[in-house]
Amino acid sequence: MSALLHYSYGLLQHDLTPGGWPLHRAVASARCRYPSELTLITPTGALRFDPLHHQLTLLCAAVTGIQYREHESTSRFIVITSRFARTARLYGDYAPRLCAQEAGMLLGAVHLVASALGLRTRPGQDQKTLNDLCAPWLPSAGEHPMGYLELARPPRPPKTGSPVDAGPQRPGDRAWHPSDLASVLRVRHSGAAIFDPEPALVTRELIDDLEAALATAPLGDFSCHLLARSVTDLAPGHYVHVEGRLRQVSEGDPLALLEQIGQSEGRVSMNFRSTACVAYLAVRRGAAVARYGDDAFRRVHLGAGAAAHLVCVVAARHGLTARVHNGYDAATAERLLGLMPDEETVIFQVAIGAARPPASFRLPVVF
Q1: pTM of the model
Q2: What span, in angstroms and rounded, lies between the C-alpha atoms of 218 and 202?
């Protein structure tokens, strides 16, 4: 549990700057506001993770609102909530979008680390279950339920003398994760305040990892469009992730597409000329709204956010930086990427490149 919480949302780096010491956790967060909270729910209590002191703090001694079935009496739940006010101080009424994005990325982070630790996880979006988990301890205002993951009871070991196979088949066994995940998460970062990467090639190995990671994302209600410019052994063009593989949609340098999509307040929002590739994560907005109503907003961000975190981890594994950047025109993205009108929409733009050294010193936080 110590490793799971630390590498999912613990403090891993800090920047030494004249204006203070910004602290970085294991997931990306808009200007390091970190509105998300992690709470461990057990049959006997709710405990809040305190990353600054790396400890669990008791919130509620008895979680009577949860009806544990007998066969799940040893299950634990990790609940993700969000304090919108932390981000709203800087971003105003845009904060819910940023908080929902981070909640999805955090769900993906917990799932990824749990998989590497050999734990079985079941990510959950169901609103009733989420509210039941939060009801006994969550304040009535100021903190919003976002998502949860169940940490299931490990399989019982085989009895002495019984046949032994290759080992228990856990859902987490099928998830992609690098063997050196701890070191990868320690070096993952989003770049400097202004993301202006140096020109660099993306290797074919990174693309292979990206295909494998997206194929095992915990919530699959998304599509990934990759506009690749500088990749070894991969022709420049527009690719879409379908059935575990990237399929080419069109050939040619996608710079013009990137600069048309990446418009923010009438100007190009970043230097796409030096990014190696950009991933656009899209969701079926129309179907989600028809099925879930207002709750569709939370659900689609959880699914796409979990996938976005995988993109960031894959980039870090290959020595590159992935930057979540919301400076894009959604209608233009839908048109140029060939999404279904009024049905699909892009909610993540993730640029991959070689980040330039920042002006501050970035130091590791080591336990």
Answers
A1: 0.91
A2: 25
